[in-house]
Amino acid sequence: MPMLPKTCGYILQESLRSLKRNGWLNFAAAGTTAVSLFILGFAILLVINTNFIAGSWESNVEIMTYLNDGVTGDAITALRAQILAIPEVKDVQFVSKDEALATLEQQFGQNGQLQESLGGSNPLPDAFKVSTTDPREVAGVAYLLGRMPGVDQVRYGQEVVDKLLELTYWMRLVGLAIVGMIGLCSIFLIATTIRLTMFARRREIGIMKLVGATDWYVRWPFLLEGIILGAGGALIAIAVLFFSYSTLAPKIMEALPFLPLMNSSLVLLQLFAGLLAAGVGLGVIGSLISVHSYLQT
Amino acid sequence: MIQFFNVSKFYDGVKALVGATLQIERGEFVFLVGPSGAGKTTLLRMIWREEVPTRGQVYVCGRSITRIKHSEIPALRRQIGMVFQDFRLLQERTAYENVAFAMQVIGSGRAEIRRRVPEVLEQMGLKDVAGIFPRQLSGGEQQRVAIARALVNKPALLIADEPTGNLDRDTAWEIINCLQEINNQGTTVVIATHAREIVDTLRQRVIALENGRVVRDECEGAYANAT
Question: pTM for the complete prediction?
């Protein structure tokens, strides 16, 4: 069990002394850690947000059933009855092409500009908005709807969500690979920094070991140095992430109102705590690599 | 206190020590002699477990150094004081701090350090140079600081590897007298040395090594073979 020796003051003093000694290398080590953790945090935010968007789209389990152009009057009534006959269907709502255009106008257009630019014609089809009793029935119901006469196309949220999730899968993979590589660099740089410190103090370490200092007593100052480097890098990454996210997220939501972004401070806090822990982890691994090879004899 | 049973040590085929068997009792004063490369340092390094034998068994203070756990090595070394030809003092620390360092790193309390360090410095006649850095001390004073550091944790065994190798004749005697005094107070002392005059004058137990073998072990021995 790693036991802290009684003289904590000594450990802190030694760590700070060596941090002062190799200034530039410290900067490089903490900087690489910061870059690696920034990318990690950025990727995680991206994934969190896509999941968030996917979730909000997924809860819209309505199936849009677009009708062929020629379907009118009685055919629509008959189709409506047919849809309602499916046991899993909860509700059916007819959306005429005019209503659809009006909704679109409301979302995007400004004062009739849309209709103007379309030259008075309406390219949108009539449609049924079908909701199911259970979101899990959506795919099955959508299949049935697609085979009904007069139905042109069936669209539901899941399709988009699936595409989105496929995209995040690749994003996650690429992000992880990048984080892994830069993480290795940061471990390597921390290990090098610690090794230099140990080299500068090799006589002291040699004497410590000769007079019977325990390995943990020798280890602690270097471990602490690594932790400080890793945590320092993490704090830089967290600061950059926090400021960029808190400035960018509102702007994105303003510009793209259909993209709901995650803005829970609890989730952000958890993410930042995780990044800090990762930074400390990198520091510990880096310094242990150097210290371990040194303390073998 | 120290037992070697048929101990050999090979480095990449080079035989540093071959079938060495010897025994040193508590309270003894022993010279380890022999030409450079005879295996003296290898033998000493096994005592504080910096080396392990390729073959054979070494017991120090009742523990087998081949079977001792890594975590138990510090406890073993705390029973052994070590002194070297090159003193191995920390240049950026004063004489006092060098001695106190040995207590700090094994976790001694501050009050105990403040009590014990001046005591040892006084014993070694270093009271007046306590606040001085090694650079400003004479060779003999530096070696006495090193001995004070070796003694400060009250070891049962003191090992000196060529302690007088860097010192002039008078200073060498001064250091040897110190070590004898320490032995008189009950500490086992083992000295590896080239100092023929000292060994021949003192007539203590002499263990001679040649080409890694123990060639002589005499109670009131001389540096060279009597015959």
Answer: 0.70
